[in-house]
Amino acid sequence: MELDKIIIVRDKTRLEQLIERFNSKAQAKFYLERSGEDFSFYENEHDTFYASLGQMEKAISPLFKHKVLFRSFLPTYMFAEGDLIVVIGQDGLVANTAKYVNGLPIVGVNPDEERYDGILLPHGPNTFLTAIKSFVDGTYESKKVTMAKATMNDGQELLAFNDFYIGAASHVSSRYNLEFRGKRESQSSSGILISTGAGSTGWISSVFNTTNNINQHFYKQKRIFNTDLDWEDEKLLFVVREPFLSKMSQIDLGYGIITKNTQLKIESKMPQNGVIFSDGIEADFLNFNSGNTLSIGIATEKANLII
Length: 307
Hints:
By secondary structure, the protein is of the alpha+beta class. The protein is built from 6 helices and 16 strands.
């Protein structure tokens, strides 16, 4: 396939973020070591990342045009048809990147196998070039991952690779009307989680862990409920967290499976500080206050991960 250029997507290292916070490396080191932390952890992580990034750029430079793009520029960068996306960082960076690249293929590179799980990072600095060459030759294999889409009544949209959180931005009650499969309820809860198959072992699994612990206490045996979704499944799960029963709020709509033929509709009853954010990244959010309604469904866009 024709490859115009490679876009290497990265984030700042934790050491770089600390230096920004404290204005210098010396001040960051002084503060953390005074608190009993091992500053060398951040230095070693930083050095390992840059060694991997340097190795990648050295391998790419003689063969392809390339550009390094920081995560913060993803929402505004204009990706082109001939771009191949190479993500180097932690798993969450792949999830965040997939929402902005319009289905372009992604090569996930794990820069630090001792620290990062790498579920979405099947390649390393020594092997990623093979994936790029297979893309050019047209012999690559990819996994098409289902994503979720939130559509607001004002036309704003947001994608999620793993999950959405919908509710109050703080720890106060989230108030809203929920509509699913012809049933409608007013609810007060700790918010709603919507998960894709890729996210089904993440945040939403904690709700199932709570359910399983309570069941074990009452039934004196393990009754295991879990999420059984593959990444490619055209399904989403939603769970209402800690629904509260009162004169004004109901609890019957607490769990469901969203398909191509069904959507979850939510109407905000929060005067302020209502939000919907994506993949645990609070910077990727939409305000969701009184007067706002939204629909959650399966996105037509797919994440395209080269495996």
